[in-house]
Design brief:
Distance between the termini: 15 Å
Helix content: 40-55%
Number of strands: 0
Number of domains: 1
Largest sheet: none
Number of helices: 4
Order of helices and strands: HHHH
Length: 78
């Protein structure tokens, strides 16, 4: 799951920045992903992992890094 997230974010959202994305990189505070990028990421997550992400779950705590997204998704999966 985390590998898919890293690949998607690196290839689709950060393609012009280069560099290596780690599981603990601060996606939001570090300016790696903006609000439009978060919406794209949520759409990817819903399609790829078959998990609905309600608007109230789109928080810094859940989407701060690959690591926090992974924990969020693990808690949401049946």
């Amino acid at each position: 799951m985390k590998e898919q997230l890293v690949r998607y974010i690196s290839e689709e959202l950060l393609s012009d920045r280069g560099g290596v994305l780690t599981e603990t990189d601060d996606l939001l505070g570090g300016g790696l992903i903006d609000s439009l990028g978060i919406m794209s990421l949520i759409f990817f997550i819903e399609q790829e992992f078959d998990v609905e992400v309600p608007p109230e779950d789109v928080t810094i705590e859940n989407f701060l890094s690959i690591e926090t997204i992974g924990r969020y998704l693990a808690a949401r999966k049946p």
